[in-house]
Design goal:
The protein is built from eleven helices and eight strands. With 326 residues, the chain is an alpha/beta fold. Helix 2 links the parallel strand 1 and strand 2. About 2% of the residues have low confidence.
Length: 326
């Protein structure tokens, strides 16, 4: 069979590894094609020996994003699209996309605005091939305002200090993870997946790659202050009970201070023999202070109770309307 295709060439083609990239989006008509073109360019120029699939998960966009995704999916079957029935939030959307991938390794989240640069993917793949099962991107520098840099810096270190396992500082969901890690994540049953924490809790062999988190070039971020606070609180309560322990210790400390203050007041009244109605300002300050502390503790307990409430209801993580190229 001189004209037949050599068996070894066919086998070699069959052994090509596949990398999956997950990109969530919402109202990103100006960025979806640029992101897709950037991913294609990376694999064509720097990773030609690998197959890839790009899973873009749309969170029920209201602009022309869906129409452009349909057009793009017709052009190349390597682009796969998940269209959600409504907006389920970036974390649920991303996690659902991760579970739909078929690659030997996946980029857990490549943002459609490419603030996490796709040019880092070849370095991640190189570390993966050398034996690391998790290659996380470290946002060593940020092209954003000083206030947000400080807030994020403090938040990352607070979470890392509270949790019982190692969570790398300045790391988001821009990570390359092995298929074994994806299989482990499938065993999680979480109504609001905190993906970076879930990956870190698996404990696989990991290494970091530093880069500059870039400023968005087109459009504006859909993550408002409320969403950032919500995501931050989710990260705080998902993998640690330390906040509850801190509130308990603060309660003991305040109770001790109250008893001490009462004893000092008693001694002062006995020694000075002062029957005048003094101490009204102290009572007012104490009333507002302890009321505020109690409300804070109740709110913290409420966050944990709310997490339990949504978890036990067992609602679907995401409801999809349609899939393209699957």
């Amino acid at each position: 069979m001189p004209d037949s295709v050599p068996v070894h060439a066919f086998s070699q083609e069959m052994r090509r590894k596949k990398i999956s990239i997950v990109t969530p989006c919402y109202n990103e008509q100006d960025n979806v094609r640029e992101c897709w073109n950037a991913v294609k360019a990376v694999f064509e120029k720097e990773l030609p020996d690998y197959d890839f699939e790009h899973v873009i998960c749309d969170n029920c966009s209201q602009d022309e994003t869906v129409a452009r995704l349909r057009e793009m999916s017709r052009e190349d079957p390597r682009l796969k699209v998940i269209l959600n029935a409504r907006n389920f939030g970036p974390f649920c959307n991303t996690f659902n996309g991760m579970m739909a991938t078929t690659g030997d390794a996946i980029i857990a989240m490549l943002p459609v605005d490419m603030q996490d640069p796709p040019e880092i993917i070849p370095a991640m793949v190189k570390h993966w091939e050398s034996g690391y099962e998790v290659v996380y991107g470290i946002r060593a520098n940020r092209e954003e305002g000083l206030l947000m840099r400080v807030v994020r810096h403090c938040y990352y270190r607070t979470v890392s200090r509270f949790v019982e396992f190692k969570v790398p500082n300045d790391v988001g969901e821009f990570q390359l993870i092995d298929r074994a890690v994806v299989d482990a994540l499938k065993r999680f049953d979480d109504y609001y997946p905190y993906i970076r924490g879930m990956i870190a809790s698996c404990g696989f062999k990991s290494i970091g790659v530093s880069y500059t988190w870039r400023e968005r070039k087109r459009g504006f971020s859909k993550n408002r202050l409320y969403h950032l606070i919500d995501q931050g609180l989710n990260g705080m309560i998902s993998f640690t009970k330390v906040p509850l322990r801190i509130t308990m210790l603060m309660g003991f400390a305040l109770a001790f201070c109250s008893i001490l203050f009462g004893l000092l007041s008693l001694v002062a009244n006995i020694v000075l023999w002062n029957q005048a109605p003094r101490g009204i300002p102290t009572l007012i300050v104490a009333l507002f202070f302890f009321s505020g502390i109690q409300l804070f503790f109740i709110g913290l307990l409420g966050e944990y109770i709310c997490a339990i409430h949504f978890q036990v209801r067992k609602r679907p993580l995401v409801i999809e309307r349609e899939r393209l190229n699957f």
